[in-house]
Amino acid sequence: MKEITKRAIDVLGSLFGLILLLSLFLIIFIIIKLSSKGPIFFRQTRVGKDEKLFRIYKFRTMVKNAEKLGAGYGFEKNETRFTRVGKILRFLSFDELPQLINILKGEMSIIGPRPTLKYQVEKYNKFQKKRFLMKPGITGLAQVEGRNELKWSKRIEYDVWYVENFSLLLDLKILFKTFKVWLFRKGIRMDQTLSEVEDFDKSVPKRHQNEKTN
To answer: How far is CA 175 from the centre of its chain?
Structure first.
């Protein structure tokens, strides 16, 4: 029942968000189009619930074909691939707003583990793959507990804890904390390299150490 309620909240919330933010979307459309060459949206294949692949939508914040330049899917110190407008969108987290479309399509949820890339999932152990038991979200427990300041192994621990302890009340708490984190810009970093955060170590919390990890 709570899963049905969560989906209903997702549909109503994404519809309301798209209508409410329509003017902001139009402004961002125009600014991106006028400020740099390339598409308005950035679309990329991500891994969702039950490890199914889907195309995520974001406002483009980097130069065209940025994933083929520089650090690829990662970031470098003093990253130069961000557009001037892109830096602002990324800092304000406005680049994530088109994911309301993914929510409406049923590929994502408002609250859940952040969607990840396929090559990252190939490094996961059995414990870490539990994060795919629920739909990915625009925001989640890991985002309000440290976001980009956390290494991936720690983010995944938070995600699995969320999956194991999911409730509508927990979603509400995460949502309210998201607004607080966004307002004070906590955990926002755009200068971390992959080597700093993409550890994917094989550690498993003590409560799961009796499970097979491969």
So the answer is: 14
Q: Please report which confidence band the pLDDT of residue 148 belongs to, taking 50, 70 and 90 as the band edges.
A: confident
| SS3 of residue 196 by DSSP | helix
Domain boundaries, the chain: 2-208
Query: Which amino acid, residue 111?
Result: I
- Around Cβ 46, how many Cβ atoms within 10 Å? 21
Q: Amino acid letter at 113?
A: P
Task: Tell me which of 83 and 196 has the higher pLDDT.
Answer: 83
| DSSP annotation of 62 | B
Enter the tokens of residue 17.
């968000």
Q: DSSP for 83-113, please give it.
A: -HHHHHHHHHTGGGTTHHHHHHTTS-EEESP
Q: Where does residue 57 fall: left (phi above 0), alpha (psi -120 to 50 degrees), or beta otherwise?
A: beta
Q: Record the pTM.
A: 0.85
